[in-house]
Automatic annotation (TrEMBL), chain A:
Pfam families (alphabetical): Cation_ATPase (PF13246), PhoLip_ATPase_C (PF16212), PhoLip_ATPase_N (PF16209)
PANTHER family, A to Z: PHOSPHOLIPID-TRANSPORTING ATPASE, PROBABLE PHOSPHOLIPID-TRANSPORTING ATPASE
Keyword Transmembrane: yes
Membrane spanning residue stretches: 244-266, 286-303, 750-770, 782-803, 838-861, 884-908, 920-947
Predominant location category: membrane
Cofactor dependency: Mg(2+)
Positions bound to Mg(2+): 359, 361, 694, 698
Protein name per Swiss-Prot or TrEMBL: Phospholipid-transporting ATPase
Originating organism: Paramormyrops kingsleyae
Amino acid sequence: DNVIRSYKYSALTFLPLSLFEQFQRIANIYFLCIVVLQFQSIPAISTLPWYTTMIPLLTVLSVRGFKDLADDLARRHSDSQINRQPCDLLTNESFTSVQWKDVCVGDVLRLHKDQTADLLLLTTTEPHSLCYIETSDIDETNLKIRQALAVTHQELSSDPIEPSLLAFDCEEPNSHLHSFKGVLEWRDMRHLLDTGHILLRGTVLRNTRVAYGLTIYTLDSKILQNCGQTAVKTTQVERTLNKVVVGIVLLVLLFALLLAVGAGIFEARVAPGIEALAELGGRYTPVYKVFLTFWGYIILLSPSMPMSLYIRFELVHVIHSLFIGWDLDLYDGGVDVPAHARSTTLNEELGQVRYLLSDKTGTLTENRLIFRQCCVAGVLYPLDLSWNPFSCGGLQFSDKRLVDTLRKPGSPDVREFFKALALCHTVMAEWKDQAASPDEETLVGAARELGWVFLSRTRDSMTLSELGHRRQYQLLALLDFTSQRRRMSVLRDPEGELKLYCKGADIVILERLRKDSTYCESTEKALEQVFSQGCLRTLCVAVRSVQEGLWEEWSRALELAAMTTGASDDLYDNMERELTLLGVTAIEDQLQVGVPETIATLRQAGIKVWVLTGDKKTAVNVGFACRLLDPGTRLLQGEELVEFEEQPELGKRFIALSRQCQAVLCCRTTPSQKAGVVQLIRKYTSSITMAIGDGANDVNMIKAHIGVGLNGLEGGQAVQNADFSLAKFHFLRKLLLVHGRWSYRRISVFLRYFLYKTSSFAFVHVWFAFCNGFSGQPMYETWFITLYTVLYTSFPVQCLAVFEQQDVSAEGSLRWPSLYQLGVGRQLFNPRLLAGTFLYSIYTSLVLFFLPLSVFCFSAIDFQTFSITVATASVFTSTTETGYWTMFNVAAIVFSMSMYFLATLILHSPLLHTIAPADFYFLAFQNAFASPLVWLTVLLTTCTAVLPSLAARALLLVLNPPDT
Amino acid sequence: MKSQQAANRPDNTAFTQQRLPAWQPMLSAHFVIPGFLLIGMAFIGIGVALYITSQNIQVLEKDYTGTGQYTACSECADMQTIPCICNVTFSLTTLFTGPVFLYYGLSNYYQNYRKYQVSRDDVQLWGDVTKSPGDACAPYQYIDNKPIAPCGSIANSMFNDTFSLYQIINGTMKLVPLDGKGIAWWTDYNIKFRNPSAQGSLQDAFNGTMKPVNWSKPAYELNPSDMNDNGFLNQDFLVWMRTAALPDFQKLYRRITSGDYALGLPPGDYVLQIEYNYAVKDFGRKKVVFSNVTWMGGKNEFLGVAYIVVGSLCLVMSVVMLVVYAKYKFADENA
């Protein structure tokens, strides 16, 4: 059957599966172990009761569980939408509407417009069983022709179907979109099938009323095979964070070990002398006591592991992503498209991009093409259409000569040239909504304006109106355009004469010209000089007269090749030679608004902009126009990239060289090469790269690292696969310089703050150990430890991660792009800074413990008051580290502190003590907070703890005052 | 209402556009430098006030461990004669302003040792002596299968030296009345601790329980002079059960608030008579402390000094910033 099941959980499996997934995280396992340790009854180990870890752990697990559940429900919903799509299935000589999920292999379907499956095309309502499919979800060219086998076409359009007589054999399901091999047996005849006979799921039927097809693959359709598991992209910050977490675990182990040794010494030397303590150790040997103390301290120090950090980290990411979508500056009112962060895990990397790899067409340029110039028979005709960038209808001639030449009889070269333009293409005359390829539409349009009107096309013929005379041409073969060949040809038979019209990239055509071809020199000169000055895209048009004998020989060879190997490129090559040059067309693709400025800003920000394009030298012109290029630019071609892949040594040297360059332009790259370049950069520089593109040919590149898709003309594939989608290239400036920089800054500050607050709070236990005989006595009340991360200190740090923008405003970020270097250089989250954060948290924990100790030493202050003093100072220290006070920050701090006092008041209330005296034994609130000494100590401790960071920030501010 | 064309237009609010009004306290040097200056001055002010207050507190400490450099009570230090009474004499040349608090102090006594600190049963201390004592009380849980009340090591190790103070007036010893009422926390006396209730006397309530091993008297006979100061609500017991924060600590023993001594201890010779029961010489020392108190509690020089130091650091910081700022401005104007 055809039921798509992308959801993971059922009601029964949700709990076990979700838990299984969650416990693959090392942090969760760690805390589970801690809980298990806490559940045993040896008091030396269970220094903290089970709920101190259990409550936060359950919170984290359930929040994550709910998120997974919500995601899964969304997947279920989309699955059922796909599964319930209606389609017409042949049953007992009539078609009935069934749901998509009920389709099986071998079923005959009737397709109307839109959705298809992986089908063998049997017949269509169009002449010759042609049909057109839009493949924008699969590859770059939009519209393709598919045709049923002649035999099925003939039989099925005349006779009733006898499906049982059909036998069908094909290859195993695979992911190759552009190849297919199969055999159809029909009345003892074997018919070979290739990719031209099948429709793929993901393509859309166009210009065809009804098509009938036989289902070949259902669930293993080619497109589903193709969307392999997308690699989960983790950010560099997150990888560092993981290392930090491992570091903290190791540190906790080390501390626990040292404290256990201390306990051993204490138990051996001091404790036996104190009668009250000596009896307590009782029956255990000192070594065993040390062992227990070790585990006890592991539990006691476990709060230094930021358990809820990951989940909060995700939340921050989601909010940052929302900010991107909410930004009015990234909203294109013209097409009503806001920016969208499709991936919510990569935000901070937006602030760290060192290499920006951009597609050219549609990304830097508008992909709205204007026929600018042509060079026919060595004469250059400029067409000035600049007054109307959308000109598709009326062409305005600036050059009277061309019209004169056209009207004058006996200028065969010029006429041949426009005839070629009108014939050599795959445009559908009926199909006006979208152009199969914008280039072709422009060229056919130009020919139309000049008198060669393309009227209609059938499977094997084309009708033109040539300066008013209607003529029909027979189409013999169509040598299709591919990104490797970059040319296409048509063979036709006007009045008995066979001709091949060929259109393609200039160097491809020029190397296939006849030796004695005229105008070659002048055309090349025109190419070099004139066309290349504007950012024009050039195509050469050539013709070849084909002998009847050669054609027959060639077509037989082609048939044979199709049946055996399927490789026809060599044959195509044989035909496309000995060409005669007709002329050159030049199409201008205008730059998008703000592209030069954006690229200039990005370069000031220290981002290296690389342009990867499938085009040829015109890319260079675009490069100059974008202020991308200066004489230092290195130009790379696809052939050279192949060498890099083969010789790693070269690749390394190339990257080393390109580091010296401000900009690199890679021409004639195939989609896979584009991705290859990304991987090359990542392999040798470990930098963060961002790829931006708008078409399906950019998908590989976009998937390779951070990808930005532009909502362009070329279908939605780029956006579908991108991490971020934008409407315009110049939005990149704000996305990177403002959102990216803020995200990086906020997340770095957030993570460091979070680590600081958990470790400074937990390490107090280490110092306290020296004063309590290394006995594992907690410094704080157990409820305080339970609620500290969850309730008392979580909101301010969360607000900081969302609102922090204290260094420079959005306008400032754009005005001083060099500030972006902070992120590229990883200056806010690196081992050195983390070590600093860590030392600072050690300092804080020392202050938190030793200042109250010094105040209370030799005094009559009891343990609980001491504990509350340290705890209050700890909450104050951990909540006030904010420099940018929005109302939310203030509210969060006020809320946190009130929660602390309120919760402490409740937990210390007589009522709770009455209910469970053993669990609520801290009744110190009233006495402690009534004491001025406690308040004075809290104030002193808090101020001393935050003074260094405050002073450092103030000093920085005085040194670099914010520009106003 | 959004028009149809702009259905996807993001909202233009301060929150979504990240233009929330914010107050940046560290906006400029004009704010930061005076800010540090003010904080510094305030801290120094508080510090000086604390220091002066602390200096005005009179403290008299007498170590009576009986070993080492202090010889007081050396006759009792070996714990051979029980009970052993010893005297500590001192003389005051000026008035020791009242109310005078009498503390006992122990050093190197780890009341915050974890197994010690949990060695109690809060449910039992809340008046339920019929239940079996919690495991945390081990090894002071049972004697002869009878529950110990109060159980646990804290109670068992209760400080049991007693003090009485005499002023020597013309060769005769005049008893200075020591007030033991209200020395424990209100919450401890009224909420956290309760005597077991029973028909009849307190002794009946403790029926079926054993006294802690080290105690010479059962809980209900802790204070023979005041029937209401017995059981779990005995003030000395409450003070002892509120365990100390650090190994060296003091605990309030009595206050001198009444009679001729309400205004303080007048100049003269005094004898502190100690019933020496509590052995500490194996690990630490014990002492008695006379002190008067202010709003900030007992003598505490550290706090005042610390405030002054931190305040001075703030001042230094503000000066450093001023210099840096001046240099920066200077360089800026020259440039």
